[in-house]
Design goal:
alpha+beta
Amino acid sequence: MPAAGETERAPNIAKNVWDAAGRRAKNEGLPLIWVASRALTDYAAGTLALPRTSPNPEARNRRGRTIFTTDAVWHAANERRTKDTVRSMSALVEILLDAYARGEVHTHARMVTTGQREALASTPDGPTGAARSTLSVA
């Protein structure tokens, strides 16, 4: 289910990339849809760099895979991927998930004080809990 303000997107992702990222997400106790959406959000915000700008040419069996994101994140990621010369939004999401599956991108949580949590929660994309999860490049 999407969070408030998010809509469903269906970028075409290779089955082997989706499955590999799904195995890692499951091992980390995370929903793959969340990992994909978080990676796209962090990329759009400029806090996650791409390890490369083209998807794996060996990847096959691409089809639409469900992720959820806001229109603002989708458009910001689209602008940035154009500057980074990534051919499409589907390619971008596949690159991000492939990097995650290969261990080139990592999730981490940041501990915050109550005051910091309240400050984060007051931002449009702020978390509702005590820890804000995000992704980082290896």
